[in-house]
Design goal:
The protein has seven helices and ten strands. By secondary structure, the chain is of the alpha/beta class. It has a domain at about 65-85 and about 105-260: P-loop containing nucleotide triphosphate hydrolases (Rossmann fold). Helix 3 (about 135-145) packs across helix 4 (about 150-160) and helix 5 (about 175-190) runs parallel beside helix 6. The structure holds adenosine-5'-diphosphate and magnesium ion (MG). Magnesium ion (MG) binds near residues 77, 78 and 199.
Protein backbone atom coordinates (compact mmCIF):
# COMPACT_ATOMS: atom_id res chain seq x y z
CA UNK A 1 0.00 0.00 0.00
CA UNK A 2 1.35 3.41 -0.95
CA UNK A 3 0.76 6.39 1.26
CA UNK A 4 -0.48 9.72 0.00
CA UNK A 5 3.03 10.94 -0.70
CA UNK A 6 2.47 14.30 1.00
CA UNK A 7 5.74 16.07 1.57
CA UNK A 8 6.42 16.57 5.25
CA UNK A 9 5.71 20.03 6.53
CA UNK A 10 8.72 22.24 6.98
CA UNK A 11 7.33 23.37 10.33
CA UNK A 12 8.23 20.18 12.16
CA UNK A 13 10.45 21.62 14.84
CA UNK A 14 11.59 19.33 17.57
CA UNK A 15 10.24 20.63 20.87
CA UNK A 16 12.75 22.40 23.03
CA UNK A 17 13.66 20.81 26.33
CA UNK A 18 11.87 23.57 28.18
CA UNK A 19 10.19 21.34 30.69
CA UNK A 20 6.78 21.64 29.11
CA UNK A 21 4.50 18.74 29.97
CA UNK A 22 4.51 15.74 27.68
CA UNK A 23 0.89 16.24 26.84
CA UNK A 24 1.64 19.49 25.11
CA UNK A 25 4.55 18.17 23.09
CA UNK A 26 4.50 19.12 19.48
CA UNK A 27 2.89 16.42 17.43
CA UNK A 28 4.11 15.67 13.95
CA UNK A 29 1.56 16.66 11.43
CA UNK A 30 -0.67 13.66 10.67
CA UNK A 31 -0.16 12.31 7.17
CA UNK A 32 3.39 13.62 6.94
CA UNK A 33 5.96 10.92 6.29
CA UNK A 34 7.75 9.65 9.35
CA UNK A 35 9.81 6.92 7.66
CA UNK A 36 10.62 6.44 4.02
CA UNK A 37 12.97 3.73 2.79
CA UNK A 38 13.87 3.30 -0.83
CA UNK A 39 15.22 0.00 -2.01
CA UNK A 40 17.27 -0.22 1.15
CA UNK A 41 19.79 -3.06 1.48
CA UNK A 42 22.00 -4.26 4.27
CA UNK A 43 24.29 -7.04 3.15
CA UNK A 44 26.81 -8.55 5.53
CA UNK A 45 30.02 -9.89 4.04
CA UNK A 46 30.87 -13.09 5.92
CA UNK A 47 34.13 -14.29 4.42
CA UNK A 48 33.22 -15.50 0.95
CA UNK A 49 29.49 -15.41 1.57
CA UNK A 50 27.13 -12.44 1.52
CA UNK A 51 24.17 -12.44 3.92
CA UNK A 52 21.39 -10.35 2.38
CA UNK A 53 19.75 -9.43 5.69
CA UNK A 54 17.78 -6.56 4.12
CA UNK A 55 17.50 -6.89 0.39
CA UNK A 56 15.75 -3.99 -1.28
CA UNK A 57 12.93 -2.82 0.99
CA UNK A 58 10.81 0.24 0.18
CA UNK A 59 8.30 1.39 2.77
CA UNK A 60 6.45 4.56 3.74
CA UNK A 61 5.20 5.08 7.27
CA UNK A 62 3.09 8.12 8.03
CA UNK A 63 3.43 10.12 11.23
CA UNK A 64 1.17 8.67 13.91
CA UNK A 65 0.97 5.16 12.50
CA UNK A 66 1.48 2.06 14.67
CA UNK A 67 3.23 -0.47 12.44
CA UNK A 68 4.28 -4.01 13.27
CA UNK A 69 7.22 -5.62 11.52
CA UNK A 70 6.63 -9.37 11.36
CA UNK A 71 8.62 -12.30 10.07
CA UNK A 72 10.42 -15.47 11.05
CA UNK A 73 13.67 -15.36 12.94
CA UNK A 74 16.44 -14.24 10.60
CA UNK A 75 14.08 -12.51 8.14
CA UNK A 76 15.80 -9.13 8.65
CA UNK A 77 13.49 -7.38 11.12
CA UNK A 78 16.18 -6.17 13.52
CA UNK A 79 18.52 -5.26 10.68
CA UNK A 80 15.83 -3.05 9.12
CA UNK A 81 14.95 -1.48 12.48
CA UNK A 82 18.62 -0.71 13.14
CA UNK A 83 18.88 1.07 9.79
CA UNK A 84 15.88 3.24 10.66
CA UNK A 85 17.39 3.86 14.10
CA UNK A 86 20.64 5.09 12.57
CA UNK A 87 22.54 2.39 14.46
CA UNK A 88 23.73 0.93 11.19
CA UNK A 89 24.20 2.26 7.67
CA UNK A 90 22.69 0.67 4.55
CA UNK A 91 24.85 -1.07 1.97
CA UNK A 92 22.72 0.73 -0.63
CA UNK A 93 19.40 2.53 -0.87
CA UNK A 94 18.03 5.37 1.21
CA UNK A 95 16.48 5.78 4.64
CA UNK A 96 14.74 9.08 5.30
CA UNK A 97 13.20 9.80 8.68
CA UNK A 98 11.38 13.08 9.22
CA UNK A 99 13.28 14.72 6.40
CA UNK A 100 16.64 13.41 7.61
CA UNK A 101 18.38 11.44 4.89
CA UNK A 102 20.38 9.25 7.25
CA UNK A 103 23.03 8.46 4.65
CA UNK A 104 23.87 12.16 4.36
CA UNK A 105 24.32 12.72 8.09
CA UNK A 106 27.76 13.01 9.66
CA UNK A 107 28.58 10.93 12.73
CA UNK A 108 27.71 13.87 14.97
CA UNK A 109 24.44 14.54 13.17
CA UNK A 110 23.57 10.87 13.37
CA UNK A 111 24.23 10.88 17.11
CA UNK A 112 21.91 13.90 17.46
CA UNK A 113 19.31 12.16 15.35
CA UNK A 114 19.45 9.10 17.62
CA UNK A 115 19.19 11.31 20.65
CA UNK A 116 16.29 13.49 19.54
CA UNK A 117 14.25 11.90 16.80
CA UNK A 118 14.09 8.24 17.77
CA UNK A 119 13.56 6.36 21.01
CA UNK A 120 14.40 2.68 21.17
CA UNK A 121 13.44 -0.26 23.32
CA UNK A 122 14.81 -3.77 23.05
CA UNK A 123 13.82 -7.23 24.17
CA UNK A 124 16.65 -7.23 26.72
CA UNK A 125 15.86 -3.81 28.32
CA UNK A 126 19.52 -2.62 28.10
CA UNK A 127 19.52 -0.71 31.39
CA UNK A 128 22.85 0.03 33.06
CA UNK A 129 23.05 -2.23 36.13
CA UNK A 130 25.17 0.10 38.29
CA UNK A 131 22.77 3.03 37.90
CA UNK A 132 19.48 3.70 39.63
CA UNK A 133 16.34 3.93 37.54
CA UNK A 134 16.37 7.70 37.79
CA UNK A 135 19.98 7.80 36.54
CA UNK A 136 19.22 5.35 33.75
CA UNK A 137 16.30 7.40 32.52
CA UNK A 138 18.23 10.68 32.83
CA UNK A 139 21.14 9.39 30.80
CA UNK A 140 20.00 10.52 27.32
CA UNK A 141 19.44 14.01 28.72
CA UNK A 142 22.98 14.08 30.06
CA UNK A 143 24.19 13.42 26.55
CA UNK A 144 21.89 16.20 25.38
CA UNK A 145 23.56 18.47 27.98
CA UNK A 146 20.33 19.34 29.71
CA UNK A 147 20.94 20.86 33.14
CA UNK A 148 20.72 18.67 36.18
CA UNK A 149 17.46 19.99 37.65
CA UNK A 150 15.56 19.86 34.42
CA UNK A 151 16.98 16.42 33.73
CA UNK A 152 15.84 15.13 37.05
CA UNK A 153 12.37 16.60 36.78
CA UNK A 154 11.84 15.23 33.25
CA UNK A 155 13.11 11.80 34.28
CA UNK A 156 10.73 11.77 37.24
CA UNK A 157 7.87 12.79 35.00
CA UNK A 158 8.78 10.11 32.49
CA UNK A 159 9.01 7.42 35.18
CA UNK A 160 5.72 8.61 36.60
CA UNK A 161 4.13 8.20 33.18
CA UNK A 162 5.07 4.51 33.16
CA UNK A 163 3.96 4.02 36.78
CA UNK A 164 7.40 3.79 38.36
CA UNK A 165 7.56 6.89 40.55
CA UNK A 166 7.93 4.61 43.55
CA UNK A 167 11.11 2.99 42.18
CA UNK A 168 13.42 5.92 41.46
CA UNK A 169 16.33 4.71 43.61
CA UNK A 170 16.09 1.05 42.64
CA UNK A 171 18.70 -0.57 40.47
CA UNK A 172 17.58 -2.70 37.50
CA UNK A 173 18.35 -6.00 39.27
CA UNK A 174 15.95 -5.01 42.04
CA UNK A 175 13.04 -4.87 39.61
CA UNK A 176 10.83 -7.32 37.77
CA UNK A 177 11.20 -7.74 34.02
CA UNK A 178 8.05 -5.73 33.40
CA UNK A 179 9.32 -2.89 35.57
CA UNK A 180 12.66 -2.92 33.76
CA UNK A 181 10.91 -2.68 30.41
CA UNK A 182 8.74 0.15 31.71
CA UNK A 183 11.94 1.94 32.79
CA UNK A 184 13.47 1.47 29.37
CA UNK A 185 10.28 2.92 27.86
CA UNK A 186 10.63 5.90 30.20
CA UNK A 187 14.21 6.30 28.98
CA UNK A 188 13.11 6.08 25.35
CA UNK A 189 10.48 8.72 26.03
CA UNK A 190 12.62 11.23 27.89
CA UNK A 191 13.80 13.19 24.85
CA UNK A 192 10.28 13.17 23.41
CA UNK A 193 11.10 11.33 20.20
CA UNK A 194 8.76 11.45 17.24
CA UNK A 195 9.41 7.81 16.46
CA UNK A 196 9.48 4.87 18.85
CA UNK A 197 11.33 1.81 17.58
CA UNK A 198 10.75 -1.37 19.56
CA UNK A 199 12.51 -4.66 18.89
CA UNK A 200 10.47 -7.52 20.40
CA UNK A 201 9.65 -5.38 23.47
CA UNK A 202 7.62 -8.15 25.10
CA UNK A 203 9.90 -11.03 24.10
CA UNK A 204 11.25 -11.56 27.62
CA UNK A 205 7.98 -10.99 29.45
CA UNK A 206 5.05 -13.17 30.44
CA UNK A 207 1.84 -12.42 28.59
CA UNK A 208 0.18 -10.34 31.30
CA UNK A 209 3.26 -8.14 31.75
CA UNK A 210 3.70 -8.00 27.99
CA UNK A 211 0.15 -6.70 27.67
CA UNK A 212 0.91 -3.92 30.16
CA UNK A 213 3.90 -2.86 28.09
CA UNK A 214 1.85 -2.96 24.88
CA UNK A 215 -0.87 -0.83 26.50
CA UNK A 216 1.76 1.76 27.42
CA UNK A 217 3.13 1.78 23.90
CA UNK A 218 -0.40 2.22 22.59
CA UNK A 219 -0.86 5.19 24.93
CA UNK A 220 2.31 6.81 23.59
CA UNK A 221 1.01 6.30 20.07
CA UNK A 222 -2.49 7.55 20.72
CA UNK A 223 -2.10 10.33 23.25
CA UNK A 224 1.38 11.57 22.39
CA UNK A 225 1.00 11.00 18.65
CA UNK A 226 4.27 9.08 18.56
CA UNK A 227 4.84 6.94 15.48
CA UNK A 228 5.56 3.33 16.47
CA UNK A 229 7.51 0.74 14.49
CA UNK A 230 7.58 -2.49 16.45
CA UNK A 231 9.27 -5.77 15.62
CA UNK A 232 7.46 -8.85 16.81
CA UNK A 233 7.09 -12.42 15.69
CA UNK A 234 3.72 -12.68 17.42
CA UNK A 235 0.94 -12.22 14.88
CA UNK A 236 -1.69 -11.94 17.64
CA UNK A 237 0.11 -9.06 19.30
CA UNK A 238 0.43 -7.25 15.98
CA UNK A 239 -3.25 -7.80 15.21
CA UNK A 240 -4.31 -6.41 18.56
CA UNK A 241 -2.21 -3.25 18.54
CA UNK A 242 -0.87 -2.35 15.11
CA UNK A 243 -2.82 -0.50 12.44
CA UNK A 244 -0.64 -2.05 9.79
CA UNK A 245 1.54 -5.13 9.46
CA UNK A 246 4.64 -5.44 7.32
CA UNK A 247 5.74 -9.03 6.74
CA UNK A 248 9.37 -9.77 5.93
CA UNK A 249 10.92 -12.95 4.54
CA UNK A 250 14.57 -13.34 3.59
CA UNK A 251 15.20 -9.61 3.69
CA UNK A 252 12.23 -8.78 1.46
CA UNK A 253 8.88 -7.16 2.14
CA UNK A 254 6.34 -9.82 1.19
CA UNK A 255 3.12 -8.26 2.49
CA UNK A 256 1.88 -4.87 3.69
CA UNK A 257 -1.47 -5.38 5.36
CA UNK A 258 -3.80 -2.85 6.96
CA UNK A 259 -5.55 -3.94 10.14
CA UNK A 260 -9.21 -2.99 10.06
CA UNK A 261 -9.59 -3.72 13.76
CA UNK A 262 -7.18 -1.00 14.80
CA UNK A 263 -7.36 2.61 13.63
CA UNK A 264 -4.51 3.27 11.25
CA UNK A 265 -3.65 6.70 12.51
CA UNK A 266 -3.59 7.67 16.14
CA UNK A 267 -6.11 10.08 17.56
CA UNK A 268 -3.48 12.79 17.78
CA UNK A 269 -4.90 16.16 18.85
CA UNK A 270 -6.36 18.41 16.14
CA UNK A 271 -5.43 16.45 13.05
CA UNK A 272 -5.34 18.59 9.93
CA UNK A 273 -7.53 17.42 7.06
CA UNK A 274 -5.56 15.39 4.51
CA UNK A 275 -3.76 17.51 1.94
CA UNK A 276 -3.84 20.63 4.06
CA UNK A 277 -0.79 22.07 5.76
CA UNK A 278 -0.90 23.58 9.26
P1 LIG B 1 15.51 -10.99 12.69
O1 LIG B 1 15.57 -9.80 13.58
O2 LIG B 1 14.35 -10.98 11.76
O3 LIG B 1 15.57 -12.28 13.45
P2 LIG B 1 18.14 -10.15 11.79
O4 LIG B 1 17.91 -8.83 11.14
O5 LIG B 1 18.72 -10.15 13.14
O6 LIG B 1 16.78 -10.99 11.74
O7 LIG B 1 19.09 -11.01 10.85
C1 LIG B 1 18.85 -11.19 9.46
C2 LIG B 1 19.97 -12.04 8.87
O8 LIG B 1 21.19 -11.31 8.91
C3 LIG B 1 20.24 -13.33 9.63
O9 LIG B 1 20.57 -14.32 8.71
C4 LIG B 1 21.42 -13.00 10.51
O10 LIG B 1 22.19 -14.12 10.78
C5 LIG B 1 22.17 -12.00 9.65
N1 LIG B 1 22.89 -11.01 10.45
C6 LIG B 1 22.35 -10.12 11.34
N2 LIG B 1 23.29 -9.34 11.87
C7 LIG B 1 24.46 -9.72 11.33
C8 LIG B 1 25.82 -9.29 11.48
N3 LIG B 1 26.15 -8.28 12.28
N4 LIG B 1 26.76 -9.93 10.74
C9 LIG B 1 26.43 -10.90 9.90
N5 LIG B 1 25.19 -11.38 9.71
C10 LIG B 1 24.21 -10.78 10.41
MG1 LIG C 1 15.68 -9.65 15.68
Amino acid sequence: MKTSGNTPSSGLVYPSSSGEPFDSMEISEPNSLAVHTENVCRHYQMGEAVVRAVDGISIDIRAGEFVALLGASGSGKSSLLNLVAGLDRPTSGAVIVHENNLAALSREQLAKYRLHTVGMVFQSFNLIPSMTLLENVELPMRFAEVDRHERSSLARESLDRVGLSGRLAHRPTELSGGEQQRASLARALINRPKLLLADEPTGNLDSRTGTEIMELIRTFNQSLGMTVLMVTHEQALAEKYAGRMLHLADGNLIADVGNGDVANISSAPSPAPPGETQ
